[in-house]
Design goal:
Low-confidence stretches: none
Number of helices: 6
Radius of gyration: 18 Å
Largest sheet: 18 strands, mixed
Helix content: 10-25%
Strand content: 35-45%
Structural class: alpha+beta
Oligomer: single chain
């Protein structure tokens, strides 16, 4: 029976079991699409990644990213967690603090800041694309989230690899107090071609000025603990609506407390509009898959 090296990495945290876990299959050669999807369904995490030899110029390795139900072109916490696993396993060596990964969204740069337990890894998200606001979507969101959704700024779909419907709920209390109707949310995301809904609000904590929650029930993930692509979509929405200062901006966002986690995502928005998401990671499992 073949054996494949495997790690489970907790991302956007310095403490095990407090971030968002990703399963990383460190050598997926010999696994076909169906096998990858079966493994991702079995791990039952929001994402499982499969590392393959680089297939694009400039990339150190290739990553395929699967939810329990489908493959994604890009996702933030799997990208960060996979880089962490590859470095720890000695399978990737940063050059001047940089790596590059190939994925379905293209070749994306990774920035490695620090070493050991202090190390943070950032991935640059694909360039954001925006859909026009849709009044019917706003009405449906209000019903699904069971809260009044404002029209200024209007919710809209933001694509950063996956597409998230981004909603401004103004303040932390409204975000943390949400009790969504997940069946309606699943229908809404199917109808509007998004992977899920990312909501955000402002916090009085200057160290964590933004609070985010991400829901993807149609993908078998009622609430994702800490979501890199969702955070990138929120950052793009904030920038596009003039809700961030001009120039280079860095901030940290809280996510995951409602599901027993306490993730922190570091976000950087460049003056050129480029968005990086990153943070710390810890390895929780290091072993072998028996295939």
């Amino acid at each position: 029976m073949p054996k494949v090296r495997f790690q489970q990495v907790d991302v956007f945290t310095t403490a095990p079991f407090r971030g968002n876990p990703v399963a990383v299959v460190l050598d997926a050669r010999g696994l076909d699409d169906q096998a990858m999807q079966r493994i991702a369904s079995w791990t039952n995490l929001s994402e499982t990644t499969f590392v393959l030899p680089a297939n694009a110029t400039g990339a150190d390795y290739r990553v395929r990213i699967f939810t329990p139900r489908q493959e994604l072109p890009f996702a933030g916490h799997p990208s960060v967690g996979t880089a962490h696993a590859m470095i720890d396993a000695g399978l990737a060596v940063p050059r001047a603090g940089a790596l590059a990964m190939a994925c379905a969204a293209g070749v994306l740069p990774l920035r490695v800041d620090g070493e050991g337990a202090a190390r943070r890894i950032f991935v640059r998200a694909p360039t954001a694309r925006f859909a026009d606001p849709d009044l019917t979507q706003i009405v449906a969101l209000s019903k699904a989230l069971r809260v009044t959704v404002n029209q200024h700024p209007a919710p809209r779909n933001v694509t950063v690899g996956p597409t998230w419907t981004v909603v401004d709920l103004e303040d932390e209390a409204r975000v943390r107090g949400l009790r969504p109707d997940f069946a309606r949310l699943a229908e809404l995301t199917h109808e509007h071609d998004s992977v899920g809904v990312a909501v955000f609000g402002r916090s009085p904590d200057p160290a964590l000025p933004w609070v985010v929650r991400c829901f993807a029930p149609a993908d078998g993930i009622p609430e994702d603990p800490v979501t890199g692509s969702g955070q990138a979509a929120v950052a793009a929405f904030l920038s596009a609506n003039g809700l961030l200062p001009a120039g280079d901006v860095a901030y940290a966002a809280s996510q995951g407390r409602e599901v027993g986690r306490d993730g922190v995502v570091a976000v950087r928005v460049g003056a050129d509009g480029g968005i990086e998401v990153g943070g710390h990671s810890v390895t929780c499992i290091d072993g072998m898959f028996h295939w």
